[in-house]
Design a protein that fits this description.
Elements: H1 16-27, H2 32-38, H3 43-47, H4 51-61, H5 65-70, E1 74-77, E2 80-83, E3 86-89, E4 98-100, H6 102-111, E5 132-133, E6 138-139, E7 141-143, H7 155-158, H8 163-172, H9 180-189, H10 196-199, H11 203-219, H12 230-244, H13 247-261, E8 264-265, E9 268-269, H14 271-283, H15 293-305, E10 313-314, E11 317-318, E12 324-326, H16 327-334, H17 338-348, E13 364-366, H18 367-379, E14 381-382, H19 386-390, H20 394-403, E15 422-423, H21 425-438, E16 440-442, E17 450-451, H22 452-459, H23 463-471, E18 479-481, E19 490-492, H24 494-502, E20 508-509, H25 510-517, H26 521-528, E21 547-548, H27 550-559, E22 560-562, H28 563-570, H29 574-583, H30 592-595, E23 599-601
Parallel strand pairs: 16-18
Antiparallel strand pairs: 1-2, 2-3, 4-7, 5-6, 8-9, 10-11, 12-13, 14-15, 17-19, 18-19, 20-21, 22-23
Helix pairs in contact: 1-2, 6-8, 11-12, 11-14, 16-17, 20-23, 22-24, 25-26
Length: 611
């Protein structure tokens, strides 16, 4: 079969249906459906973008099929379509509604003498987010007859034939520039890139998220999607674009603003009341289409700001680990008084001072910030309870505190309550475990063994000195009664204590060791402090001035070098030492500001600084 003549070429901005309707008007002067029937082609097949139908039409018209297929919205499944490289749903199109610009129609009519042959229905007009004519800056007219052939979008029978009527339509339309969202949609279909967050998802996901968020921002959370007009959706898209173009950070900021302005129930914001149609859309049990990353962002924001319980379903997914709760709910779960917890959280800065008198059920806190405080509270033990717990007298408790075996809770926030005079529960557990591990048990005491207090009396030594010997492992004859608890069960030999005290002990007090190393007491205490790693300088005992053995001093000097002593060790001037260190870029092992001294590992030093 010979192609139709003369050839009416396909326009790059129109749809296959538009081109077919122009063919019908050009060659027959009639409607589209009869024209297709003459060639045994179905209107419904062309409207669905069936490839064979499009190719057959191109063959009949003598047209290269490539540009026609490029503008074909092809059905891929139930209410699903594909346009170029984009998967879309029927909701992304105008459906049976035909949009057009009256001024474009007027220009098309003037471009072709044959009636209807120049009327091009633009591909852009078939897309739901396109509501404005980019050429004339007019809101598009919407038309629908309610008949079966609305699917043809046949401008030849839809648009007014009277030019005066077209002018009246144009005058009635709002004048505006295309929305940035509309521009982005057309740019994306043309292969151009835009904002990263929008480009990273499906075109329909990005548009829907932008319009839904913009609708809540513009019209409030009480507005329902079914109440929105086309002009309202255009305004929503413009407002939403200002947010979604900025990506997740901007979206989270907008969600925070909506929550701050939203209604409250018992002092707490409710997601449905704050996010309106956006929340309703994303929380629907049967979503026809994947909404994209906006759902994950809103869900994360809700979990970060709204108290929910474990197992509660938020936007389709059960909560496994709640992130926030109220002061009241945390206190109830942990068995604490809510006012005590609130006051401590205020003192720690977790809760703003401005909310220190708010009801505990109205104050939201993050579990990650509250859990460490709660853990310390629940494990802290008031000093007044220590004698009974440890089986120790008050002087013995004081000695344990002085030596550092029991540490007071060094948290100024806890001073607002009774917890300010408490010790770390972990220290108590460690002490009891140490006694059981290091002191051998006996059923009955020997005559030479006496309790700790009696040993202090007989030896005329302070309890701190006896405890130092005990914890250093020097009291080999010490025993623990099996029928007693804590320190009340500990028995020691006064004779052994006297012998140890009279025998010179190798080593020195830490204060003297610090002087010999050339570091300040503050820096020295940090050298022997237990941190995440082993202390740099091993000490025997605790307290304000523990014992440093000769082996510990020798090990420190072999391994580490203190900068201020390198001049003495090497005989070099301090400037020369500095130059060698800078030239070889020798790093200190710790930040000097944290330790209070500049310390290097000797293995890192250049040969000129080794001794």
């Amino acid at each position: 079969m010979r192609p139709l003549f003369p050839v009416l070429p396909f326009a790059s901005d129109e749809t296959p249906l538009s081109w077919a309707a122009r063919q019908a008007a050009f060659h027959t002067g009639g409607r589209l459906a009869p024209f297709l029937n003459d060639f045994d082609l179905r209107l419904s097949a062309l409207a669905s973008g069936e490839r064979d139908t499009v190719l057959r039409l191109c063959e009949i018209a003598g047209q290269d099929p490539a540009p026609v297929l490029r503008n074909t919205i092809a059905a891929t499944g139930k209410r699903r379509y594909r346009l170029r490289d984009e998967d879309i749903s029927v909701a992304f199109t105008t459906g049976p509604v035909t949009r057009y610009c009256p001024l474009c129609v007027k220009e098309d009519r003037a471009s072709e003498p044959r009636p209807g042959a120049g009327l091009r229905h633009r591909l852009a007009w078939r897309l739901a987010p396109v509501r404005t004519c980019a050429r004339h800056g007019l809101a598009l007219v919407e038309a629908r007859s309610g008949t079966w052939d609305d699917i043809a979008h046949e401008l030849q029978v839809i648009e007014p034939r009277d030019e005066a009527a077209l002018d009246s339509l144009a005058a009635a339309q709002a004048q505006r520039a295309p929305s940035p969202l509309q521009d982005w949609v057309l740019d994306r279909l043309a292969g151009r890139s835009g904002p990263d967050w929008l480009d990273a998802q499906g075109i329909e996901q990005a548009v829907r998220a932008t319009e839904m968020l913009g609708a809540v921002l513009t019209f409030g959370p009480d507005r329902k999607a079914a109440e929105m007009t086309g002009q309202m959706w255009d305004a929503a898209g413009r407002a939403g674009w200002d947010v979604t173009a900025g990506g997740e950070t901007a979206i989270r900021a907008a969600l925070s603003e909506l929550m701050e302005a939203g209604p409250r129930s018992r002092g707490l914001a409710r997601p449905r009341g704050c996010y309106g149609m956006l929340f309703s859309w994303l929380s629907a049990s049967r979503l026809a289409r994947d909404p994209g990353p906006i759902r994950d962002i809103l869900r994360a924001h809700i979990l970060d700001t709204v108290p929910v319980t474990r197992g509660h379903v938020v936007l389709g997914t059960p909560v496994t680990e709640p992130r926030v709760g109220t002061v009241a709910s945390v206190a109830a779960a942990e068995g604490l008084h809510p006012l005590t917890l609130r006051n401590i959280l205020v003192a720690k800065g977790v809760v703003p001072v401005s909310r220190q008198h708010d009801p505990c059920g109205h104050i939201i806190v993050r579990h990650a910030e509250v859990d460490p405080v709660v853990h310390r509270l629940k494990n802290a033990v008031p000093v007044t309870q220590l004698p009974a717990i440890l089986g120790a007298s008050r002087p013995l408790v004081a000695a344990l505190l002085e030596l550092g075996h029991l540490r007071r809770v060094q948290d100024q926030a806890l001073l607002v309550s009774k917890w300010g005079k408490a010790v770390e529960g972990a220290d108590i557990d460690a002490l009891r475990a140490r006694l059981e591990r290091d002191v051998a048990p006996v059923e009955a005491p020997s005559d030479q063994l006496v309790p700790l207090a009696k040993a202090a009396e007989k030896t005329r030594l302070r309890l701190t000195r006896i405890l130092e010997l005990l914890f250093a492992g020097h009291l080999t004859r010490a025993r623990r009664l099996q029928n007693a608890e804590g320190f009340a069960a500990v028995l020691v030999d006064p004779t052994e204590i006297k012998r140890l005290v009279e025998t010179p002990r190798p080593g020195m007090r830490a204060s003297l060791a610090f002087m010999m190393l050339g570091v300040s007491p503050t820096a020295g205490r940090r050298l022997i402090a237990d941190g995440d790693d082993a202390p740099l300088l091993q000490s025997d005992g605790q307290g304000s001035d523990p014992w440093i053995g000769p082996e510990a001093m020798a090990a420190f000097r072999r391994t580490f070098a203190i900068k201020k002593r390198l001049s003495l060790e090497t005989g070099l001037k301090s400037g020369t030492v500095d130059r060698f260190i800078k030239e070889h870029r020798v790093p200190p092992i710790f930040d000097p500001r944290r330790i209070g001294a500049t310390i290097y590992r000797r293995s890192d030093l250049p040969e000129a600084l080794t001794v």
